[in-house]
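Morning. Coffee machine broken again, so started the prediction first thing and wrote up yesterday's gels while waiting. Chain of 638 residues, entered below exactly as on the submission form.
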Amino acid sequence: MKRFSFAVLCVLALSVFGCKEKRPAVVEQPVFESWNSDIIQIEKIELSDTATVMYVHAFCQPGEWIKIDKESYIRKSRSDEKWFVTKSEGIELSEEFEIPDSGKATFKLIFPPLPSEVTAIDFIESDCEECFKIWGIHLLPGSKVTLTPFPKERKAEEPLPDPAYSSQPATISGKLFGYVKGEGPETVNIYYMNLLNAEQITAELPVAADGSFSGEVAIGFPSIVASSLGSLFLTPGKELKIFTDLKKKSRYESKFRADKAPGDSLYQYFEGSPVSFAALNTLDAERLITDREEFYDNITRLTADEYKSYLLDLLKEKSDKIKQSNLPAHVRLLTENSLKLEVINRLLLYELFIAQREASPIYAQTKATPDPQKPGKEYYSILSELISDELSYLSHFVLIESIIRQSSFFNISGGNHQSPEVKFALFKEKAELLGIGSGIFLDLAQMQIYGEQIQKMQFYTEAEKEAIKNAFRHHPEYAQRLIEENDRLKKETEANQNNPGIVVNPTPNVPDDKLFDAIIAKYKGKVVVVDFWATWCAPCLQAMETIKPLKTDLQQQGVVFLYLTGETSPVSAWNKKISDIHGEHYRVSGNQWMHWSQQFGIQGIPYYMIYDKNGKQILKQAGFPGNDALGKTIKPLL
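Came back before lunch.
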């Protein structure tokens, strides 16, 4: 009698009965196609006739929070067949969960049992754009991910461009390999700093069905910027091409995948960049301080001068190692300047005081903040050795001017009603005392001091435009940037003021402790929903989208929706966002927002308050309570 192996029998049986590989009871370290975040990672999946159990790990910075929505589900991959989460263990659904000091949290998500024929699933943490998603999770042992052919990198060494301002935009183009529409990012986001106010700008480049994308950003200086694809080096007037393998990227980022392959870390390469993808990763990993708790323990008992010396010693030690490394010269230069920038920021933010405050028993009991020691000229004199034009290669250099003006030595805030000319003259005088009264740093300071006015929506008159041209006569391109920004923001503001359903209100001219009462008094006789929010707050924006059906119904019944934000919402981003947010809008100063935070105990946003028709507060709620809860609170008040 002829013998057949099981594999042969299986092949023969395919033509008659079919022969499918059986799904195991436990899938360890499941293989998957791609994801939108590496925060949520699946260690294993248990499959039984009664439930599907996912063992999940969350990796995040200690103190930050995550949330798993109660509308989360798994589905047969690339289908509409869904099974919603039934319960969880170790985390409460739809509630914020703070990541512990370990930086890792572990929990279980339980779903209904899956039909035996389902061999691949997607995990969808509700349908919001920012929610966690993992696509193509394979449930059969030995599954492999098929990679899309990736073009070979064409290496071409380029020198760093000169650190000089240019009004020409940087061009970005590229392709996401392994991209599936609906299973990947809708946009590639580029994050860079606005030279005029040191606020972050997000440029969203739409991704086409084939994974291609392109766009322009006006960065001003050749510099490293952040993006949703990692760090990039952009140069005004030049094109950067980006090629990213999404499947390889997901495989490399996973802590549990057993199918990792050599070379996965090189899931991306550039054309038209003086700095390679690998070099940028090296640069991102190089930090002066990696353990905040240890750093604070080391500096708590130091004087201001000892604190400065401690940072400079760390800088020298790190810089010496970099100089002896085999990194390319331009990567060494960028790395050394990145470390210098870290020292500058730690000096200016005066973390010595923060460490001493946190170590104080009085602060631990009362949260009372003692007055910090005020460093003098000698403390800041080291800036002349640290600040150079080469720091402009690092986009966060733009922040230095904003931080430095918060220091006691540079403080010019007493001249709130002074002209930009006078403010800049005061600033320059103090900068020159420290030997930093020239170069790109001072140019940025001048631009930001003049740009304060338009960030307060006090737009330039024609006479003021001529004064700006005169003030920047040696740098007419800076004057042009200021005036163009002014005209653009003014046009956007006027468009919103003419938008039906949107009311942009001036802030009442009253003391900070009377401001909220002055605002809410305008709406007495109506039910008011107050929403404290910001343009950069994803949960705020998601809640606004969720509430739309309820809001439409309530507004028709006379309910007022009052939206309050502060100066951390840049005017440009604010104008863009409120164009789709019907209601009453106020944008207040940083001091006014801070007063509200203390007055109402606001520790996070979104933050809601509801007032009845007599102006009595009915509800105070941190985080979006949901449409059902809001409806039950508001409708009895109508």
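The two ends are 87 Å apart (CA to CA). Going to sketch it on the whiteboard this afternoon.
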